[in-house]
Amino acid sequence: MNDCSDAYTPRDTRNLRIFNVWAISAAVMFVAATILISRGIVARGPLAWILAIANLLLTLLAVRAYMVFLRAADELLRRIQLEGLALGFGAGAVFMLSYRLFERLGALKLDSADPFVVMAIFWAIGQYIGLRRYAPGMER
Fold first, then answer.
1. CB within 8 A of 13, min separation 6: which ones?
2. Where are the alpha helices (DSSP H) in 1-140?
3. What is the pTM for the complete model shown?
4. Rounded Cα–Cα distance for residues 53 and 47 (Å)
5. CA separation for the pair 126, 65 (Å, rounded)
6. Residue 67 confidence (pLDDT) above 70
7. Cα–Cα dist 124/130, whole Å
8. Can you say how many angstroms the Cα of residue 11 is from the centroid of all Cα atoms in its chain?
9. Alpha carbons 58 and 64: distance in angstroms, whole number
10. What is the pLDDT of residues 83-129, one digit of tens each?
C-alpha cells in the first residue's frame, strides 16, 4: 500500500486515533458550550462553568494524547509533525499580529479562537509538505 498510512506504524495509528478522538471531542464541546452559553440557553453560573471546565479537560487530554503520539513516533514521523507544528505556529503568529492591525483599520473583528483555525490549517499543510519532502510517494 502506497499512501500516507505507510508513514505510520500500527502503534502510531492507534496513538493518532486516540488523539483524534480527544481533539474532536474537545472541538464538539467547544462549539456546543459556545452556542449554549452565548445564546443564553445555559445561564452564566455553575453549569456554564462545568461546560467550560469540561472543554478545558478535553483539550488537555488531546494535548496529552498528541504528546504520547509524538514521543512514540520514529524520528522521521516526529520531524514531519514538528515541522508541521512549526509552520502552523508561525502562520498563527503572523496572522494574529497582522490581523490585529487590520482590525484597527476597520476589518471585521475576529473571535480570539479564530486564529486557531489558521494554525490548524497550516499545521496540516506543513505535515503534507513534510511527507512530500521526507517520504516521497507517501503523500498520495
1. 5
2. 10-38, 46-72, 75-104, 114-134
3. 0.79
4. 10
5. 20
6. yes
7. 10
8. 21
9. 10
10. 999 999 999 999 999 999 999 999 999 888 888 999 999 999 999 99
